[in-house]
Q: What sequence folds into this?
């Protein structure tokens, strides 16, 4: 049996969390050489180093160094850089994760060069084509040879788009693997103590989506809602650099920074941040991953969005979609949230199922035979 080469694509911090369990699962199998490809789409050296250390990932085997830019610039830049890499050191499989621009770019490179592509977190749909991530998800899924979904509703989305069932495998949620991989360290972390918050008596806030932070009127309405909420419960807010810039330039930063019940923090490592999350009474967010993690942990989640590509967190979890004007009222109703068992296959063993699926598919295609 010959070894095959697998490229794991990472572009942004959530990607590191998703590839980490899979990297550790693949590096221990005899039939695979696994490489971490870092595109550099979102890059902060300090946070990059911290996240790789948290998840015990190696330095990237390939760094494209694309950096920030418009959607077109990022997509084209990753395509050019990754194609050059593939032409000089061709992988057998490209595994893309999530829905960032690099996810689509690398899938396009693989499809055009005849390299097998697998998409982890396939089938998620918000049905909102104004979201760049939705475009990336739909196109990546149409290109990929193997689609690994987190839940059965994602399977249904893919079949509704005409994708044959033999390309779809439900493997569960890789973000839960990432959490369980570091659960002991998360529970032992002292972030709550460091910032002086008492378990179950504070809310965690994250905010970064352009629809919330780039529109001055929307951002102002969110800040007004936070000021009301802070009268009821303290808020801990690790501030995304882009969000901080918008708050400062819109003149809203001082309102938050002078409120004694709102704690503004620099971005945290995954372990530090999740120590805050597991002790929170609620999470307020516009993130995708936090909707999943709070569903798994049974923590009330208020999502500042009109839609979600993870509707299973609404039907089987503790997540609710809210607008800024409704947010203070929703915080008052936290006692109404019911904790339910997590969705099927959200059990910390997704990476194992992915490895098994990859081996089976490669074996069927004759890629593992001499």
A:
């Amino acid at each position: 049996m010959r070894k095959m080469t697998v490229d794991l694509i990472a572009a942004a911090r959530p990607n590191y969390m998703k590839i980490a369990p899979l990297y550790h699962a693949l590096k221990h199998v005899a039939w695979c050489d696994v490489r971490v490809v870092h595109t550099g789409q979102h890059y902060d050296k300090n946070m990059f180093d911290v996240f790789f250390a948290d998840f015990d990932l190696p330095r990237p085997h390939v760094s494209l160094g694309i950096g920030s830019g418009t959607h077109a610039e990022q997509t084209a830049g990753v395509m050019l850089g990754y194609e050059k890499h593939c032409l000089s050191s061709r992988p057998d499989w490209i595994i893309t994760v999530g829905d960032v621009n690099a996810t689509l770019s690398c899938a396009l490179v693989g499809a055009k060069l005849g390299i097998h592509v697998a998409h982890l977190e396939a089938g998620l749909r918000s049905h909102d084509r104004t979201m760049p991530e939705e475009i990336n998800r739909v196109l990546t899924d149409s290109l990929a040879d193997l689609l690994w979904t987190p839940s059965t509703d994602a399977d249904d989305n893919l079949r509704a788009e005409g994708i044959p069932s033999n390309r779809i495998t439900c493997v569960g949620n890789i973000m839960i693997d990432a959490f369980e991989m570091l659960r002991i360290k998360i529970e032992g972390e002292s972030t709550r103590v460091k910032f002086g918050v008492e378990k179950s008596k504070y809310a965690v806030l994250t905010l970064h989506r352009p629809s919330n932070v780039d529109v001055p009127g929307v951002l102002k309405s969110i800040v007004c809602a936070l000021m009301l909420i802070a009268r009821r419960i303290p808020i801990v807010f690790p501030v995304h650099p882009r969000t901080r810039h918008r708050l400062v330039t819109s003149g809203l930063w001082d309102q938050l920074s002078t409120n004694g019940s709102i704690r503004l923090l620099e971005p945290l490592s995954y372990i530090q941040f999740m120590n805050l999350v597991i002790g929170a009474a609620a999470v307020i967010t516009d993130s995708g991953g936090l909707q999943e993690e709070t569903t798994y942990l049974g923590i009330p989640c208020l999502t500042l969005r009109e839609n979600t590509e993870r509707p299973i967190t609404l039907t089987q979890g503790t997540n609710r979609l809210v607008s800024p004007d409704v947010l203070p009222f929703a915080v008052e109703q936290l006692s109404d949230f019911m904790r339910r068992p997590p969705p099927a296959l959200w059990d910390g063993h997704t990476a194992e199922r992915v490895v098994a699926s990859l081996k089976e598919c490669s074996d069927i295609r004759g890629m593992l035979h001499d």
